[in-house]
Amino acid sequence: MWIVELLFSSVDPVLHAARLGARQAHRDSLAALAADGRLLAAGPLADGSGAVLVFDVSDRSAVEALVQADPYFGLPAVEIVSVREWSPVVERADERSTAP
Prior knowledge:
Elements: E1 2-8, H1 13-35, E2 39-44, E3 50-55, H2 60-69, E4 78-85
């Protein structure tokens, strides 16, 4: 799994407006990724300064391909702060679980 942390620039009103204008297309892209199991969770930080996305893909190049395909990430108001591999030791039991 991979965690992507974003930082949003809200200082420049033009950049902020451009980010908000691309948000629905971004959310549609995320919904498609969640539907096919490549995105486990995504959402803004409580203070609105950025967001966190959790991808379930094989490697960093897969994460980078998903990011490049999303209209949000090319905007100057959206900065990728980190992309880190994550190995959870506890996960919520749900329909993804294969355990009996």
